[in-house]
Every structure is written in C-alpha cells, then in structure tokens.
Amino acid sequence: MSPTPVYYDEHDDGVYCCIDGEPEYFRSMLEVRIVASNEERELIEITAENYDELEAQGAFRKNDDDW
Q1: Backbone angles phi, psi at 41, to 5 degrees
Q2: What is the per-residue DSSP string for 6-60?
Q3: Distance between first and last Cα of the chain
Q4: Tens digit of pLDDT for each residue in 12-36?
Q5: How far apart are CA 62 and CA 67, in angstroms?
Q6: Closest to 13 measured CA to CA, from 26, 4, 30
Q7: Are the beta carbons of 24 and 14 closer than 8 angstroms?
Q8: pTM (2 decimals)?
C-alpha cells in the first residue's frame, strides 16, 4: 500500500497539514516537502474549491477511523 498524501494549507505564519488524519504544523513549505519526499508522499494543496471533495473522500480522517 502506498503512503497517503500530505494535504497542506499554506498561510503567512506557516503551513498547516493533515498527515494520516493528524494535524501537523510546519514553519515553511521546504519542511513540508522534505517530509513528503522522505516518505514518498504526494503533496495536495487544500483550497476552498477542493476542500469539500477531499473531506468527502476521507482525506482528513485517521487511517483507523470507522466512518
């Protein structure tokens, strides 16, 4: 099974991510890219346009959530 993507939302004060359903904070996109590349994960930006679709697909749920 391939690793789940890193979902991220970039702000002026840093980057908020969802990794395996867990919220994470990084100071820069460089830090996010390092984590994603070390674990061979795809980066997917969270936007107002795709948020509902990602949520419906279960992108922000923990891997062991029973939904």
Answers
A1: -105, 150
A2: EEEEEETTEEEEEETTEEEEESSHHHHHHHHHHTT--EEE--TTTHHHHHHTTTT
A3: 20
A4: 999 999 999 999 999 999 999 999 9
A5: 10
A6: 26
A7: no
A8: 0.87
